[in-house]
């Protein structure tokens, strides 16, 4: 199973850079990211990286509030309508998700959609039942 | 112009007559106090007897009383009478530690209501006025304290309570309210509601007098309120330990607050040496009740910093004037009319397992309203990346602090390590309010 790296981040100057600096020093490559804002002055930064365990350890050591969250990675075509085709299948499989990341893989003209869901096992089962293929970790992290 | 007073016999007493009255009443107070378990023991230890006081300056021979003494002898240690005689109590907020509770018999309530009526009269309010008390009723003294005063004065009282601005405006219009009491920051909000309803309080109400207190405010803020509402606004001072509102009040000259010296002995002392400071110099206000039977307090350290304004007031009242309160000699602060000790907030936070040990309280003025921002660290190990869980945590902390101190905070979760670590006496409160220097001490909610 694949993981995304979730980080508690205050909406203040320099706080994001503090995170990216730790990743730079640890030579972690970010494949994709999503950041949300809230009215409370903080948000959650979600990262897809080449080595989530190493990223978690390095950030955690620096006292940063970080968590690894299980995600489901799905493949789609890198072309107009590719995401819509995939989301239709996900909806038909009756799977809801809280947040998503996406990235393209140029070599294969494909793209990856990474979903964070409430009930991981049940969602996997529903997607499997519809014949939707779930990607392996290393492909998600861009290491293959 | 003919001078008018609520109680001319008392309000314009000559200096010597006032001192004579104080000596007489202080000896009576010592006699009453000696019936309470706390003062009985203390007076025996210190060899203090009724009739000891021949000159009011001898009050310096008596021991101080502190909030800590009140808490340690909670609830009945200061009571001089059987409970049967007591008809009301007022109490501070707080679920951590003992609250501060003050008891009253019928004499005490009548005396307080009279002082409150005298205060309102002093600010120009008469029995022909319609007085809307925009203040929380209940354990706090601002609601019932004003209520009894308005009734004693004989004005038509509207016990409106706090909040619900549209209803406040409707009451003002329906009954032709001419005078009202509220905390200054609420009046800013109320004015906005007037505006958004397309109303102008200057034209669309009959308001001519506002009484403001229970919250830090400057003379500039008073002037803004006076302009917004087209009224004169008078400063009110009181604290629950000295009954509540009606301790000191501004007169028509709006230059300091007459503190009623027939009802209280007023001292200003250096908070470190506890030695008296001369009139005009700032120090801690120390007060002794002179007309309270159930629970007299002797040389009570209010922790409020102020000074006596030297000189006579043109209004003719001989009772000295205190200046606006400029600060505290302890760490208590007042927000939205509520007295808050940082330890109360710490007590709430330390019971929540998700939050770390560091927090910071910042008092700020946002859109003209004073707010309390509480920054809290979320423990690293508790973070699971779930935004809804953090939102719920924010709501939970907000509700728990509100329950404890009665003022709703703005809770902000922050990353671990960004709040300065506490080393000994850490700074837990930063006051960035526009008018954050003056503090008063009547609680309203």
Automatic annotation (TrEMBL), chain A:
<dbReference type="InterPro" id="IPR045739">
    <property type="entry name" value="ACT_dom_pair"/>
</dbReference>
<dbReference type="Pfam" id="PF19571">
    <property type="entry name" value="ACT_8"/>
</dbReference>
<dbReference type="InterPro" id="IPR045865">
    <property type="entry name" value="ACT-like_dom_sf"/>
</dbReference>
<dbReference type="InterPro" id="IPR002912">
    <property type="entry name" value="ACT_dom"/>
</dbReference>
<protein>
    <recommendedName>
        <fullName>ACT domain-containing protein</fullName>
    </recommendedName>
</protein>
<feature type="domain" description="ACT">
    <location>
        <begin position="4"/>
        <end position="85"/>
    </location>
</feature>
TrEMBL record, chain B:
<dbReference type="GO" id="GO:0000166">
    <property type="term" value="F:nucleotide binding"/>
</dbReference>
<dbReference type="GO" id="GO:0047475">
    <property type="term" value="F:phenylacetate-CoA ligase activity"/>
</dbReference>
<dbReference type="InterPro" id="IPR028154">
    <property type="entry name" value="AMP-dep_Lig_C"/>
</dbReference>
<comment type="pathway">
    <text>Aromatic compound metabolism; phenylacetate degradation.</text>
</comment>
<dbReference type="Pfam" id="PF00501">
    <property type="entry name" value="AMP-binding"/>
</dbReference>
<keyword id="KW-0436">Ligase</keyword>
<dbReference type="InterPro" id="IPR051414">
    <property type="entry name" value="Adenylate-forming_Reductase"/>
</dbReference>
<keyword id="KW-0597">Phosphoprotein</keyword>
<feature type="domain" description="AMP-dependent synthetase/ligase">
    <location>
        <begin position="86"/>
        <end position="287"/>
    </location>
</feature>
<dbReference type="InterPro" id="IPR042099">
    <property type="entry name" value="ANL_N_sf"/>
</dbReference>
<comment type="subunit">
    <text>Monomer.</text>
</comment>
<dbReference type="Pfam" id="PF14535">
    <property type="entry name" value="AMP-binding_C_2"/>
</dbReference>
<keyword id="KW-0547">Nucleotide-binding</keyword>
<feature type="domain" description="AMP-dependent ligase C-terminal">
    <location>
        <begin position="337"/>
        <end position="433"/>
    </location>
</feature>
<comment type="similarity">
    <text>Belongs to the phenylacetyl-CoA ligase family.</text>
</comment>
<dbReference type="InterPro" id="IPR000873">
    <property type="entry name" value="AMP-dep_synth/lig_dom"/>
</dbReference>
<keyword id="KW-0596">Phosphopantetheine</keyword>
<dbReference type="GO" id="GO:0010124">
    <property type="term" value="P:phenylacetate catabolic process"/>
</dbReference>
<protein>
    <recommendedName>
        <fullName>Phenylacetate-coenzyme A ligase</fullName>
        <ecNumber>6.2.1.30</ecNumber>
    </recommendedName>
</protein>
<dbReference type="InterPro" id="IPR045851">
    <property type="entry name" value="AMP-bd_C_sf"/>
</dbReference>
<dbReference type="InterPro" id="IPR011880">
    <property type="entry name" value="PA_CoA_ligase"/>
</dbReference>
<comment type="function">
    <text>Catalyzes the activation of phenylacetic acid (PA) to phenylacetyl-CoA (PA-CoA).</text>
</comment>
